[in-house]
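Entry type: protein chain
Record version: 2
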Amino acid sequence: MKIETFKINDFRNIKEIYLPKGEISNFNIFIGNNGQGKTNILEALYILSMQNSFRTSNYNHLINYDREGFRIRAEYNIDYREFEIELKYQKNKKKEVYINRKKASKKHPYCPKVVLFTPDDLYLIKGSPVKRRNFIDSILKQLSNEYAYFIEEYGKIIKKRNFLLKKGQSESKAFSILNQILVENGTQIILHRINFINILEKTAAEIFQEINQDESKIKIKYALSFPIENDKINTAVLKEKFDIELKKIKEKEIIRKTTLIGPHLDDINFYYDNKLARSFASQGQQRNMVIALKLAEIHAFYKVKGFFPVFLLDEVLSELDQERKILLLRYLEKSDFQTFLTSVKAEENIFEKANLFYIENGSITRKGQS
């Protein structure tokens, strides 16, 4: 997938930015001081894909000052097919999204796809398990409508089951039926996650060594919320063990009035040289792991969908030493996927093949090829 043009109107501090065909390349860098609007551009591109912001849940906060709404539009291609997407929002009203001038949602098969890196992603490794679950769920929901259905239904099941536990109805027929559905649905979620992590781990390990040029190794393992002894995890094994553990933990659930095992409590463990990364890896090592993980996400997406998403990186360079900065930039320069990156410094001597855009007060002041 490649973005060929985009136009942003009345979005945060941006009154209007327009990049026509021919001005966007495969590797694009937005340069400017903090507060000038670099991240706002990435946010606008992200919203076109995900239809929500990575910085706020309130669309009204995205409108430029005293304006009444904003508009974002882009032309892009997927598998040599041309598409146009437009997202419009008026204050206190529902957003409207059109693909090729027909109303659409983010479930549209040819909605633009992106992978985002922000400095906050460091917490993916050292933060709470919910961040890691959200990370894997966000990817899988983009890749599989089936998974999106399973995870939505699972949330409803947990809500109903916890309600019955709070009401003291754990012996009811309804509770017994919910247990069966919980096991069926939860097993599918776990298997989807494990299969995807297996793809992600191999690619992330290879990329990590390429962009770091050292012998350190990383691993990713799925951590179930209940014990399982069998090395061969499949549908039958998981269902049986999940059901057994539910029966074992029933008395505790009655006391605590909540569901105590299941994929809503599973975790993903990252290892750096066979040590748990959140406990033993330095902040710099964790950051490099997350960058490799995001790049692996792009390649895993390609393996499943057959096309690359667009990569959005916000302020990654300021956190890297010069050697790793150059290694990352060289990796992005030669990649088949399109990249949009922000930087405070105009390090033109190492931006060898990048298309540079200088941002000031929400406007592009200068363009140039490094």
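Comment: The radius of gyration is 23 Å.
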